[in-house]
Each structure stands twice: as C-alpha cells, then as structure tokens.
Amino acid sequence: VQLQASGGGLVQPGGSLRLSCAASGFTLDDHDIAWFRQAPGKEREGVSFINSNGRTYYADSVKGRFTISRDNAKNTVYLQMNSLKPEDTAVYYCARRLRTVVGSWTREWAYDYWGQGTQVTVSS
After folding, report:
1. What's the CA dihedral at 109, 103, 38, 118 to 10 degrees?
2. What Å distances lie between residue 72 and 6, 26, 28, 58, CA to CA?
3. Mean pLDDT for all residues in the chain
4. What average pLDDT does range 96-112 have in this prediction?
5. Termini Cα distance of the chain
6. Residues 6+ apart with CB under 8 A from 77
7. What integer pLDDT is reported at residue 13 of this predicted model?
8. pLDDT of residue 41
C-alpha cells in the first residue's frame, strides 16, 4: 500500500495549485482520504476530507478556497487550492483512514497510511 503526494511548489499569494494523491496497492474508492498539512513550528492539522461516497469536509480556514475530489478510475484524490495565502504554506500530506473508524475526520490516529508530503510555499 502506498500513497504518493505531488503537485506542490512555490506560488504567489492569490495563486492556485492542484495537489494529487495517487494510491497504489489498494482500491481507492473503498476508502476515506484526507489531506493534512504541517507548517513550520506548528502541529499538523486536517485540511480536507472525502469519504468513499464522495461527501466532503473542510477546515474553516480553507472553506470556499479549496476543493477536494476523487477520480476512482485513476485511483487518485486531488486538492484544488485557489486564492492561496501565505498562511497556507506547509507540507501537505494525504492519508488513508482506517475503514473501521467513523466520526471526526481530523483525528490523526485514525489514518493508517500516509503519503510522503509535498511542500507548498505561498510567497511573493
């Protein structure tokens, strides 16, 4: 089982990026997937979540700017990030939630596999 996060980079404030999380070794459409991020000196936090039925959730700080989606045919989850702000600068991780877990999606212990992270830097 593997998750491969990609798509990060350097972007100016107000710009956009699309992150990808490619899954291998399992069927993505059977699982819930989340994006987390960790900024320097801060704890990791949940950014967005999509369950196996396609229902989505977002942290308040990114609502209206980020969109999570999944392409089961490509076994990939995406995070479209628009109107980026300097405070969005962080390493972004995708993670697979244990199938036995329900409830709050922000609990890190509920995830069994994590991607390696992709750096997003928002700066002029």
Report:
1. 90
2. 17, 11, 6, 20
3. 95
4. 89
5. 38
6. 20, 21, 23, 28, 33, 35, 50, 68, 69, 70, 71, 94
7. 98
8. 94
Q: And the tokens for 46?
A: 């949940």
Total residues found in the chain within this entry: 124
**Measured between alpha carbons, how far is 45 from 54 in angstroms, rounded to an integer?**
21
Cα–Cα dist 26/99, whole Å: 12
User: What pLDDT was estimated at residue 103?
Assistant: 82
- In sequence order, what DSSP letters do the residues of 98-121 get, joined into one string? PTT--S-TT-GGGEEEE---EEEE
Using CA of residue 51, residue 57, residue 115, residue 80, what is the dihedral sign?
positive
Section 69-88 average pLDDT? 96
Give the residue from 85, 88, 113 showing the smallest Cα distance to 99.
113
Q: How far apart are CA 5 and CA 115, in angstroms?
A: 6
Q: Is the predicted pLDDT of residue 114 greater than 90, yes or no? A: yes
* Type of residue found at 9: G
Extract the tokens encoding 22: 């490619």
* pLDDT for 104 beyond 90: no
